[in-house]
Amino acid sequence: LNLLGRSEDPTRLIGEAYDEEKMAVQNQERQDRAGTFLIHFHGMILNYLFQNFEVALKHAQNTRPLLDAVLAKYDVPVFWFYEALVSMAVARERSGITRSKLLNRAAKNIVQFRKWAKFCPENHTHKLELLLAEQAYSRGKNETARLHFDRAIAGASVQEFLNEEALANERAGVFYLRTGQESIAEHFLKKSFQTYREWGASAKLD
To answer: What is the pLDDT of residues 60-105, one digit of tens each?
Structure first.
């Protein structure tokens, strides 16, 4: 509903189907760690998608201690994926020890994704490629970043992960924009827009 544009604030789970403020209190009273996990988990994803990276990082930090509440669920690798993306996004705006810690967190997640990609390439290889692209971008290795962005986009397309294909195109577009290649950036951002539209994410299009 948030991504469909049917919430006042697309980054908060407050609307016709759910109220994160009320549920947070209820989850605490019931000691429902899985419910608390899901609030922060989705908060992390939504704030990352709408580029509120600092808020997304806070949600990620609140989510990680609750991972044991959702063991063996697909939410686990998705969390590791977005946590790494969030960490690298914030790291670009930081320096010193904080930047190093964030990049180290992302690097650990990438090591884990290499294992998941080995055992289930259909779900995880394109995610790994996007993480490697962002890591190379963070390190100033632009040629390597280009290669991994292309692989991430192609892999997500083949496996029909429309949302992650759109995201990979978007991140590639941002990468080219920030490295001064506006005409190439325009191509990837237009492709991202088209793919988000196909997925149905009206709020993201806006």
So the answer is: 999 999 999 999 999 999 999 999 999 999 999 999 999 999 999 9
Angle 71-74-80 from CA coordinates, rounded to 5° = 85
